[in-house]
Give the backbone structure.
Amino acid sequence: MTSLAPQRAAVLLRRGLVLEGLTLAWNVVGVAVLAVVALRTGSVALAGFGLDSLIEIGASLVVIWELSGTGERRRRRALRLIAIAFVALAAYLLVQSAVALIAQHHPSDGPAGIVWTAVTAVVMFALAAGKTRIGRALGNPVLVAEGRVTVVDGVLAVAVLVGLLLDAALGWWWADPLSALVIVGYAVREARHLIAESRASEPGGA
């Protein structure tokens, strides 16, 4: 934590918790919406986006847990849990996208997925900006890291949206699984960054 006045730090902490609560609520609704839409359309990207929402729920719970306590050990554990979430997301999207491309899976059209992903992208980028700003002000790397998870959620929403639009407008079925692959490299990079950050904060770490 930075050397903020206690009152200011308390205000920022409450704002951080509010942002995490909003993220949690949005993604709980999103999991239900995406589960229905993905089943109806057969979209690999929407199914992957639903998993991303589940991971974002887990990441939000981790940060709320971390913000409610103190100590470097708790912080390191939280960073590693978020890193695991990134790895799980990347692995799932890699496998599912490869299967869809090999099988030449054609998802069906559906406006609900387009609308949801477009709105979600805007909401996630706004939440990520707030988390990053507050996390840096507090000197809290976990909140900043979870802001990156939320950015990933927004980026994935944009990628899925582009894939859905290309498929709907031009019949490019392969755009759906390819859009799900956009986030894989980013997720792996973030996981490595978080693991390195958690190790650096260990006693005697670089």
